[in-house]
Amino acid sequence: MPLGLMVLFLVYEVICESINPVSTWWMGKISSTTSFPSLTFWWKIGIYGFLGVAVFVLMLLRALMTAKATARSARINHNQLLDSVMNCPSSFFDTTPMGRILNRFTGDIPQIDQFLFSRFLQVIGMWVGLIGQIVIVSVDTPWFLAIGLPILVLYMGLLILYARVSRNLQRLESIARSPVLSHFNETISGAGLTTIRSFGREEAWKEKFHKVNDDLSVPFMLFREGQKWASLYAAVISSLLFTGVMLIGWFFMDASKLSVAIMSSMTFSMMGLQLINMTVDLESKMTSFERVDFYASKLPQEAKGHELEVPDSWPERGDVTFDRVKYKYRPGLPFVLKGVDFEIHGGEKIGVCGRTGAGKSSLLFALFRLVELDPKHAPKMIDMKTGFLVDSDPNEEPNSGRILIDGVDISKLDIHRVRRSVAIIPQDPTLFTGTIRYNMDLAGHASDDRIWEVLEMIEMRDIVAGLPLGLDSQVAEGGGNFSAGQRQLLCFGRAILNNCRVVVMDEATANVDVETDAKIQRTIREQFREQTVIVIAHRLNTIMDSTRIMVMDQGYLSEFDTPENLKANPDSAFNSLIQSLNH
Question: What region holds the ABC transmembrane type-1 domain (predicted)?
Answer without folding.
Answer: 14-291
